[in-house]
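$ ./design --mode recover --in tokens.txt
reading tokens...
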């Protein structure tokens, strides 16, 4: 039986009040997700306390952050540490998202340090990898993704790699008018698993969940989740409405 991970990334949307409303609406749809797909929402920092409190009413619902610093503490104005996320009750953290790489200059080395720190704090890192449109058109996508994976994971033990989640973002297919097909998603996910096999062995590679992060919605979720190497989704807009996120969870449960 497959256990999908359906993860929402709210980006810079939904403050504490809106977060509480989201969970009130989700609670009317379900009080327990513990027997199906694992469900996670990663909220803005200011909304994490509200999310953790509200998610407690839904069995199995997890909350995560969208970023963290690789140091435990110090003079890093505006940053948040793994220990702080632990104290809040987070269990996951998104690292290396394409927007962090593009807008905030995060390198593979920086992302790798964050992955190590998250694992050391018993947070599950959701490591994001993916290519932009120019790289896809130049047929460089495999080289780009392999470099990102190795840059973040090469120093880790197989056990540590086995405790990560990978999210593939076809950056070229998000807001560009281009469309990533389910087969393109499957091809890249299969390639990601081959790199993980190189780094940690086949058993570990097969156990790591690889999520698709290219605009999954209720109307395309079944076809995407039906691909053999797609283990869930890192979902943006569709995760910010309780009804649409729940529909994707239902689809995942049907396919499990």
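writing sequence...
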């Amino acid at each position: 039986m497959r256990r999908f991970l359906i993860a929402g990334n709210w980006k810079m949307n939904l403050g504490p009040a809106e977060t509480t409303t989201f969970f009130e609406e989700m609670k009317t749809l379900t009080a327990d997700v513990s027997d199906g797909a694992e469900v996670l929402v990663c909220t803005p920092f200011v909304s994490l306390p509200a999310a953790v409190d509200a998610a407690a009413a839904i069995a199995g619902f997890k909350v995560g952050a969208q970023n963290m610093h690789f140091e435990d503490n110090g003079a890093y104005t505006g940053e948040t540490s793994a220990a702080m996320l632990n104290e809040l009750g987070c269990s996951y953290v998104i690292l290396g998202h394409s927007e962090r790489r593009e807008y905030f200059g995060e390198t593979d080395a920086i992302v790798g340090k964050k992955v190590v720190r998250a694992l050391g704090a018993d947070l599950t890192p959701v490591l994001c990898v993916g290519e932009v449109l120019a790289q896809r058109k130049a047929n460089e996508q495999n080289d780009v993704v392999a470099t990102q994976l190795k840059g973040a994971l090469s120093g880790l033990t197989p056990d540590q790699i086995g405790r990560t989640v990978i999210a593939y973002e076809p950056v070229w297919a998000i807001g560009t008018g281009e469309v990533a097909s389910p087969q393109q998603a499957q091809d890249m996910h299969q390639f990601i698993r081959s790199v993980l096999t190189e780094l940690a062995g086949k058993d570990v590679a097969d156990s790591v969940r690889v999520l698709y992060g290219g605009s999954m919605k209720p109307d395309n979720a079944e076809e995407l989740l039906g691909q053999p190497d797609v283990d869930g989704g890192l979902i943006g807009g569709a995760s910010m409405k309780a009804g649409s996120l729940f529909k994707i969870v239902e689809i995942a449960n049907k396919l499990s």
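exit 0
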